[in-house]
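anyone seen this seq b4? input:
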Amino acid sequence: MDKSNLDILREGAVIPAMPLALDDNRHFDRVRQSALIKYYLDAGVGGLAVGVHTTQFSIRQHGLYEPLLDLVMTEKKRFLARTGKEVVMVAGVCGETPQALREAETARALGYDAALLSPGGLDGATEEYLLERTRAVAEILPVVGFYLQPAAGGLRLSYEYWRALCEIPNVAAVKCAPFNRYQTLDLMRGVAFSSRASEIGLYTGNDDNIVIDLLTKYRFPVGDKIVEVGFAGGLLGHWSVWTKTAVELLREIKACKGDIPQKLLTRAVEVTDCNGVFFDARNDYKGGIPGVEEILRRQGLFKNCRCLDPNETLSPGQSDEIDRVYRMYPHLNDDDFVRANLEKWLSEE
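predicted toks r here
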């Protein structure tokens, strides 16, 4: 990874987990996908994550993994040439070790900076197997470790696992998304007690606690000193929508010194309410991906909120709940920004 990109990852950024644009026949919509990428880049994100859960893991079965990563990289290079601004490119990598290695090789060949290595679908895998898999992938690309909530196919992982993971030289960052305070604490303690704590960029993926995560510092007595670690940014499906205000929120949090303003604590509750609606928490997240796509549809970026799986749709009442959070928290959306730029983003130039 280029030093400049490694610095971006360590310092923390808004990294949206990118959804997949489909036309009404569920075919890959390159024009809308390109518009979405331009939206994120113009909104000021520090990175893009592609081929991850929000993108739909089944892109692999539909032959879309490499074409999608290629398109996103092409748009990123155009943005870099136009603005001179670098962003971190993160490719989702999953599966047993052979599949993970193939995907990492594909991502490296396309110019990606890091691999977000998912433990999803590896039921029964031991922690030692996961560590060996990480070491193997880290030979190809810097790795972003991933604590995925068990409800989404992840595994319960120990403090010892996270400490060992952070000792792997080419682990550059960790995304923490167990949706659980105890398990989050295990991860943060593991990072702090590793010898590479200062080299690891920590990213929240705890959708139910985004703002509080970003405001919190963890302090641990390690030997004869106190080690402080904290989340530097977010790699989130939630930040795949209303992204401009997410960038502004992270900037506000990073500028916060000393006492935490009450308004940010209130914002934390508002963001969690919106997230629960977008990702359909009350229905065990069944409408999660269609939920964020519905926001993009309302803004005009997507034609629809269709997924590759026809059975993956908005849950009953979810659209009404989206109406509710739009009414209750108008300051959180970035509709005006999208409206002002949509025609430009949709052009095929």
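The mean pLDDT is 96. The chain is about 45% helix and 15% strand. kinda curious what u guys think
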